[in-house]
User: Fold this.
Amino acid sequence: MKAVILAAGVGTRLRPLTDACPKPVLPIAGRPLLARTLDWLRAQGVGEVALNLHHLPDRVRDCLGDGAAWGMRLRYSYEPVLLGTAGAVRAIDQRFPGWLDQPFLVVYGDMLVDIDLQDLLDFHRAKRALFTMALKHTAHPVSQGMVELEASGRVVRFVEKPPLWDRGDLANAGLYLCEPPLLSWLLDGPSDFGCDLIPALVAADAPVYARLARGYLLDIGTPAAYAQAQQDWAGR
Assistant:
């Protein structure tokens, strides 16, 4: 399997830590976050990864190199202007034509993750989904992409950061399984999974599914969450 890691974010909420270090390279219990992400991907059988870069791109390249330390091949897609989460995948597809020719994983670069990917992949295949997102529980819908499901796991409603939400506590966890035909839905220029692509897919009644992730997921994008990550992963 191949994976895309979205690693271009500036990390404004974590300043001043991110003034000189990209958010995805910040240390988690002494090891860069992206290194831990690649550890997890390698254990899940992923052999090739593309990363989009923007803020301090050389720091990311210097940290990860060509992927040989993980027995993987890494590709980099630099964005002079941020393209958004979906726009980044579109740019990678254009930069490396034909590379995304099989089901692929998209992982947000600020996610500290150790989930059972095989469980999500089995669900994705059983549903013959075009797009499957991992979910998490949240007590803060206003800051999340919120999801309403049918009993089958099909997504019937998705709202990015709703001011009001009364349809449960399941939120987008920032990890997606995608089939290659999804690429035809991606537009040139800036676009976002949560604000643009997922709502468009759901509105078109495309086979979009979601499943609660089994394992550990944490967005490290705030000082409190970053401190929590250090505590959770101490000694790992």
In short: The domain at 2-232 is CATH 3.90.550.10 (Spore Coat Polysaccharide Biosynthesis Protein SpsA; Chain A).
